[in-house]
Amino acid sequence: MLITSEKSQTTRRQLRCILTAEDYQIVFVDTPGLHQPKNKLGEFMVREIQNSVANSDVVLYILDATRPQPELGPEITQGKPVILVLNKIDLLFPKQTQELVDNFNSDGRFAKVVAVSAGNRTNLDEVIEAVKGFLPSGGLLYPADQLMDCDYRLLAAELIREQALLQLEDEVPHGIAVEIVDFSESETEATILANIIVERESHKGIVIGRGGSMLKIIGTGARLQIQSLLEKKVHLKLWVKVKKNWRKDPNQLRWLGYK
Questions:
Q1: pTM given for the model
Q2: Per residue in 31-59, pLDDT tens?
Q3: pLDDT digits over 79-123, tens only?
């Protein structure tokens, strides 16, 4: 399973990506970002992490090498082996990277430390090799040709939310959810109607932008990502709606699918 130190991630159901080779199958489970909960949504996210760890064989803890401050404690890892993945080493000098690896190797909390650059695809094979060392023996959990375990509605919602967070940066502090209103598709195209949910009226204006400019940027970026995923033409229509303090309201959380 994957745990990151980033606080910008939420998920209604963990995304499972499946990697199958001749002698192994690895199921990567993406969890919310590890953080101290400040509302009902935060509590839900931490429970999601704990439940995922309980059902996993090994934990991949992904840490930004430029901000190497791990927050991982025994209450999260539950005694499972932890592989520390230091990402973005392309932003460091080799000597800095080696010093980080040496320091974390002597930390005692990590079964293995791997330094990578996901953007440059550096050392990603080492992560796979590290995970293989902790896999139990047994048959395949999924068919060999299956690449993921989730539906396209969920993936579309996550891609829309990702684009919103990328474009807005810190202007709207993580109080964004995406609700898929309608998802229909044929062999050649798909039509998706979705609401971007924010907590405050002031956030609504930020997400829409002057003359709808920001919403158009978010929609274009998300549409291209979804098209690449579905391999067909996508029509995406977005609206912005306010659900005040939705992260603190259990009823709102259930309505948005955070069960």
A1: 0.63
A2: 877 777 777 667 777 787 888 888 899 99
A3: 899 999 999 999 999 999 999 999 999 988 899 999 999 999 999
Contact 212, 237 (CB under 8 A): no
Same domain, 6 and 121: yes
Q: Are strands 59-64 and 82-87 parallel, antiparallel or unpaired?
A: parallel
Q: Tell me: do 60 and 156 sit in the same domain.
A: no
Instruction: Give the Cα separation of 194 and 83 in Å (integer).
Output: 37
Q: Which domain holds residue 221?
A: 152-255
Number of domain units in the chain? 2
Residue 178 near residue 196 (C-beta atoms within 8 A): yes
Phi, psi of 138 (to 5 degrees): 155, 180
Report how far residue 24's alpha carbon sits from residue 130's, in angstroms, rounded to the nearest whole number: 13
